[in-house]
Amino acid sequence: MRDLDENTSNSRRQFLQCMAWAGAGTLWLMQGGVLRAQALNGQGGASAADASFGFVQISDSHIGFHKAPNMDVASTLRGSLAMVNAQKVRPDFLLHTGDLTHLSRPDEFDTLAGIMQEARVDKTFYVPGEHDVIGDNGAEFFRRFGEKQQAGGWYSFDHRGVHFVGLINVLNLKAGGLGSLGADQLAWLKKDLAPLSASTPLVVFAHMPLWSIYPEWGWGTDDSAEAIGLLRRFGSVSVLNGHIHQIQQKVEGSITFYTARSTAYPQPAPGAGPAPGPMKDVPPEALHRYLGIREVRHVRGTQALALTDEVLS
Amino acid sequence: MKALRHAAAMSMLCLCCGVAVPAMAAKSDAPPKAAASQIEIRNFAFAPNSMTVPVGTRVVWTNRDEEPHVITSAGKQFATSPALDTSDTYAVTFSKPGTYAYYCSIHPMMVGTIIVQ
Q1: Which residues of B touch A18 (CB under 8 A)?
Q2: What is the ipTM of this complex?
Q3: In A200-292, which residue ranges form alpha helices assigned H by DSSP?
């Protein structure tokens, strides 16, 4: 029985990877650190009915970017939010995993804040991307979008039995390095997690990947191993990131890592081409296949999280 | 079957990317100006990556990427640039001899060195 389950989950995992590469929508189910999936239907269907709550992740809206392949990143962000509003089951909140803007300009933050008001959700949580902290170490970002729990900008909250942690890994970056959490944040994280029982489901989110996807392109975080070490005792951990504008996933024990698509433009697969950056020649009619949102539903009683990736259509 | 589909999807994607990124154009050998040196930022790298210049040289960075970059001195030896969007430039005049390591503060794997003699 156990073997059968294992095989099923392995083949599903391979299938999921294919779906992620092809840019199709997928419903992700996470149960005790093991990934399962269902075919995605438009509204989440039966899984939405079973879920005790859901939330939606969006990422990398890059307001201010206005070049190929997306001359109008505001409208693709609006398209993502329209999909959120169209869900039959209203998500409890939104999570924006950074790069709200392209250049940290006040007018870009204004535009982003205005568009985000179109989402019919009670609350949006944000963490900054490296594009949001240019010139002022994130002062403007934190003033507008910060949770203001800790001086460094990181925070945590509990929602219906799940502990959420928002980490900052785009500040104080060292020459030649990757993303960075820093000693202060790691010390806080240790303290924040200490009182929790190992059965508490965790969702940890930050902009840059907390696993080394492709360090040659800066797609990783220098001291993420220390943070991950603090998460290992928990039975169900989901780590959500943005930054690389494509879906990648990895399962490591009870920890499952995901990166989200951008609402603005896709980037090449790791190592495909000389450098990261926008994939410029995606034809406009195909762009929506690369953009998307992620919805996560917490399934009551089973401590499983269902993650649904949807593309714009 | 599934593995095959995976491989097909991957190779499709790689093909797309191969077309997406233009080859780096060969630079013509422009005559060097007496007191200005150019550094191009292309494909998330500084070119040239290391440069030796005489005291008093004005070094100009030009961003040729679609992504913004920020020129930052590793030892706070010169002022940090604003966000350089595509085609934006930033110039620093080096009036003292020394080795100036710098990087992009938002893509810190991008590093370069200017040696002023």
Answers
A1: 2, 5-6, 9
A2: 0.76
A3: 224-231, 284-287
